[in-house]
Specification:
Elements (H helix, E strand, L loop, with lengths): L1 E4 L13 E7 L2 E10 L4 E6 L6 E6 L4 H10 L1 H8 L13 E4 L2 E7 L8 E5 L2 E6 L6 H27 L6 E5 L6 E3 L4 E5 L7 H13 L8 H10 L3 H17 L4
Parallel strand pairs: 3-5, 7-9, 10-12
Antiparallel strand pairs: 1-4, 2-3, 4-5, 6-7, 8-9, 11-12
């Protein structure tokens, strides 16, 4: 996030609806959402998870020229931050996708039918995918969803049993703002993209949301319970902080 100190010229009680436009960052066109907020005291610019969009908050009363100047001044910052994200779709024959933290080479079989399979061939991890070329990303995402379901169903059951709590339901989504959530009635939700993370990180995510069944907060008691369920909690949190955005960067169509 980048910010610039500036007091709003005039605060409106009802800000206008978000404005959507595109900006050019080193030849790459990115969607930009601009929200005017009467409570904001500065311009802020954020990169959405995955690096595929930008979000800007602007105090009411800031003129268009100041918005353009702010974006121009931070072109270098955007170029540096966006450089770590993939700009091409690697979900094709010969590309790679992570499954439980292991990079698998994608091998398109060319067959219209057939299961998507994770195999070890000549000591190399391979993901064999059938179907038309344009369907490969979707087939891979379907495979990852199944892997996430298998792992999370198992891990959630283990952790919930350890604290004698019942889970109402377990849902998979493609969320950007969080990896998981837990409602007051015991409904858990997870991002299926976590199937690309190492096993210890998947275990941490399951433990984190199960811990909320007892502690609906992030208090010291919550983190102590999280550590009890998953002793590698801190290591997993660091991994997600370093690599989480890269998992969001993959475009499955």
């Amino acid at each position: 996030m980048f910010s610039s100190l500036r007091k709003p010229r005039k605060a409106l009680k009802t800000p206008p609806p978000p404005e959507r436009r595109e900006v050019d960052v080193n030849g790459r066109r990115l969607p930009l959402t601009i929200r005017r907020d009467f409570r904001a005291t500065r311009l802020t610019l954020r990169i959405e998870p995955g690096g595929r969009a930008l979000r800007m908050t602007v105090p009411n009363g800031v003129p268009e020229r100041d918005i353009r100047d702010f974006l121009d001044r931070h072109q270098g910052w955007l170029m540096t931050k966006l450089a770590k994200f993939r700009t091409t779709n690697e979900l094709a024959d010969g590309g790679y996708v992570m499954i439980r933290g292991v990079p698998h080479r994608i091998e398109a079989t060319g067959r219209l039918r057939g299961l998507t399979e994770a195999l070890i061939i000549d000591d190399e991890a391979v993901l064999r995918v059938g179907g038309m070329e344009e369907s490969i990303p979707r087939r891979i995402s379907d495979f990852l969803k199944k892997e996430a379901r298998l792992e999370l169903d198992r891990l959630v059951a283990v952790h919930a049993g350890r604290i004698d709590k019942k889970v109402k339901s377990l849902t998979l989504r493609d969320t950007r703002s969080r990896w998981g959530s837990c409602s007051a009635d015991g409904a858990l939700s997870f991002s299926w993209r976590i199937a690309m993370a190492p096993p210890g990180v998947i275990d941490y995510l399951a433990a984190h949301e199960v811990a909320h069944l007892r502690e609906m907060n992030h208090s010291p008691d919550f983190w102590a319970l999280c550590e009890q369920l998953c002793p590698t909690t801190e290591e997993a949190k660091r991994w997600l902080k370093r690599n989480g955005s890269l998992l969001h960067a993959l475009d499955f169509g």
